[in-house]
Amino acid sequence: MRVTKSAAVAAALSLTAFTAQAATLEDVQARGELNCVVTTGVAGFAAPDENGRWEGFDVDFCRAVAAAVLGDGEKVKFIPTTGKTRFTVLNSGEGDILFRNTTETMSRDADLKLSFLPVNYYDGQGFMIRKELGVTSAKDLDGASVCIQTGTTTELNLADFFRINNISYEPVAIETNEEGITNYSGNRCDVYTTDASGLASTRAALDDPSAHIILPEIISKEPLGGAVRHGDDQWFDIGKWVVNALINAEELGITQANVEELASAAGDNPSINRMLGTESDMGAMVGLDAQWAVRAIKAVGNYGESFDRHIGPNTQIGLERGLNALWKDGGILYAAPIR
Amino acid sequence: MTEKNYIPGEHPDLPPPSNMIGPVAWIRDNLLSSPANIIMTILSVWFLYIVIPPTLNWFFLDAAFTGEDRNACRAVADGACWAFIGERFKLFTYGFYPEEHRWRVNLSFILLIVALIPVLFDKAPFRSLGLKFSIAFPFIAGWLLVGGLGLEPVPTSQFGGFMLTLVIGITGIAFSLPIGILLALGRQSNLPIIKVFCVSFIEFIRGVPLITLLFVASTMLSYFLPPGTNFDLLLRVLIMVVLFSSGYMAEVIRGGLQAIPKGQIEAADSMGLKYWQSMRLIVLPQALKISIPGIVNTFIGLYKDTTLVIIIGLLDPLGIGRASLSDTKWTGLSTEVYIFVAIFFFVSCFGMSRYSLYLENKLETGHKR
Amino acid sequence: MNEAIASQPQRNIVSRLWNDKETRSVIIQIIAFAAIFAFFFFMVRNAISNLESIGKDISLDFLSQPSSYDISQSLIEYSSRSTHFRAMIVGILNTLLVAVFGVILATLVGFLLGVLRLSKNWLTNKLAYVYIEYVRNVPVLLHILLLHGIIVHALPLPKNAINLGDTAFLTNRGFFIPSPSFEPLFWVVAGLFVAGIFFSIWFSRYAHKVQDATGRHYPVFWINLGAIIGIPVLAYFILGSPIIWEIPELKGFNYRGGMVVRPEFVALWIALSLYTAAFIGEIVRAGISAISWGQSEAAAALGLSRGRILNLVVIPQALRIIIPPLTSQYLNLTKNSSLAIAIGYMDIVATIGGVTLNQTGREMESMTIVLLLYLTFSLLISSFMNWYNKRIKLVER
Hints:
The complex is a heterotrimer of chains A (about 350), B (about 375) and C (about 400). With about 375 residues, chain B is mostly helical.
């Protein structure tokens, strides 16, 4: 049979295609565009502005990777996903890299076959509630209706929390943050629960933010970070070191404004020289050129600059650095050195 | 009271008694003919009384047509806040299609009307030429909207709003009819393997909800493709929608095929016509004519089902509306959004069903059995 | 086969084979089979290599692991410690619940609409027409969302609940109604009820026989009504109301105790029913108007009353026309219940095809289960309706 023969050929071809696919870097460079998986919209982290341009803290990491790999932070195609579709989109090869307020957990790492990049935001799950209800602690929430995004770790933490404290609740399942806002402001639920950062961003977007409080309890650890598929170590390294480079840049005082000047000639600080490629070519180790970190920092600034621009105290979201300060400043942000 | 004698058959026609004609008689016959009827009339009037005035108030009299945000609307009036729809109207129409390329959407829409005329009216001038254009239209419009070959490409992720509804609806309609015909013929075929395949395909499609197929398209399908192929989400959805409605289409057409007596096919055979000739010249024209109401109903169903794409994250008008509702300027105005979208769907679907009635009457040639 | 074309004498064989009807059909089928097989082979091959490349396998072990998520409405005991399998059962039951209630309400409203459409009263007739056209031409998802929006926004919060006689409370968190708990004596009432059903079945047959033999006519309906409803109700009060109703009361955020019907269920149920009812209405109208007037007139000439004309002449014949399209409406309703996910009602798609899929990352397995479940439902409903269809056909003869 001719046809079955051709099927065998096709299957063989697909096998070779598979080995070729492992090289995500080449795919991205050939395509000239990075497919980055983000949320459908969490103000400050990733949301389209009035002109449809994606902006936010997570978006900056996408742009930094695109700048390092493709030389242009604008060459990113954003794939908005719900909590449910994000990993499928990544695993099926539709997305190259994911920056989507995603909590690193063992099962996601091992069972969902993801490789997590360094944490870019240390978070924890909190509760938001109307002030007028007079609730001051999450333990008083017995019997409340709680809006919860399905497909997230928060859904599991919530079940655990109420179970441990032996109190009851009614879960109101929603798919996206927008639905959460609609349901919460429409009074379908008393409480909205998600990562504290997301709550701050949601609260800022409400009609009268001062009418809502975020309860003091943080019921979980939520280390949020980017992720890539299992099986392509080179691509994983690129993602990992771009994130580390942005954090190290803040530590070393490299900013969007001074990075080009620092990169023009080797300076006194060997750490800076190594990172910016003026002394040695670190980029070659991950299949990039020497200027990779320069472009990444030039595109979005260092970690602190991006933080302040999108979610810091001077923005609508108004998050403090807290745990996310550098280790020198009392936080736990401690990036591995580039050497 | 004089008595007159008339020759039989020459009695002049007298007007009916005045209480048997005119509005009074009509009211008596249609509204008040029996006690039960009177009760029904009273109930209906009461129903209208409680429904119409509040609806009118909400829609027009108490509605706010301008305003910056929800509070501005509420300050003016208690009814609908159409200012919201007004502000987002472009978003509802074009989705996130880039501003400078929107002429392409408009042009496609105009071409759509041009392409529809020869299909809908058989007295349209230059019909045979027009029909060729109609067949080419989906491809021309696809090129215009997606770009490439000289036009700047627009990623399909920026499609949205009514435009997306039309894209999915028209593609589904254009491709599901031919595939449906093939499936129906396959199901009637006397080649067992082809028959088994068509039957199982049709029954599978009809046995599961569209939403699960869309989930398959968005979560599972990419595993079945050669690694590294990147298949546009909209394209995957279109394929699923086409397959879904062709399953239903096949059943509708099968009904038409079954109504054609076997003698016709045998007569065609004895005249030496090949299978495809006899199908094309004899069976299908009759079968399709009989199935027109069913075909149009399938189209309407398909068109309505395009709303389901919001569940997998495409932004049709409903999706745009829901996304807009999370803007805190406008939260809580869900009713306005849903009613606005409902009006759009009602107008298009009602139009389609009226057209199908018109066609049915026109094609009525006494073949009805 | 393509190689064969190259040489001349063989072409004759090919064309002879091709022109022979039998062989041709075999050839076409072999090619078709090979193409289909190749297609599936290709797909499966892709899936295997894709899954391999990220190191995933296919197994159903995840079903026996704890689900770790909560579900707001469940017909069986369920908590976050239960397994994913149990979560799936909860989803199936929720789908069935809304489908069964939906079919009942849709049938009732649909028949009512069909009758109103046939009404001689112009106003009623046109009202039914406008209603049917509006409902049929707007997507069902919109109906669901609209109704859900109205319930959530228009109904009050629990603390201002609409109080129905201090026993039931309407809020936007759900409808809180008393839940019964049964005392032992209640089972006597239940027993009487079941006995009443059996009695009425026997009595209907008996009355039929008597009527066939002697022409004597019993008021079957009233006697049966008394046996099924009247006696148990009487017994209920004589035995001193052996049901204790637990009445919901406001505690903290929500009402506690009693039963609660969530707005998601109500929105889905009502919207699906009203949507399907519009289609059923048209089917019923078409079915009844297909029965020619002559039949009713003939029956009237025989001296049958209006009710008996409907019961004995029109409805049995109309049902034969109505049942097949009615079946597909029931199927549609069941399939449309999958839209539950749009408002967060936890049906099959939202549990196994939603949260479970998500938390375990088992897309292949979960989606396959969901598809198989719906196929099973469709098969069951259509075979039941086919059976029923055959039965009423037999009655006809």
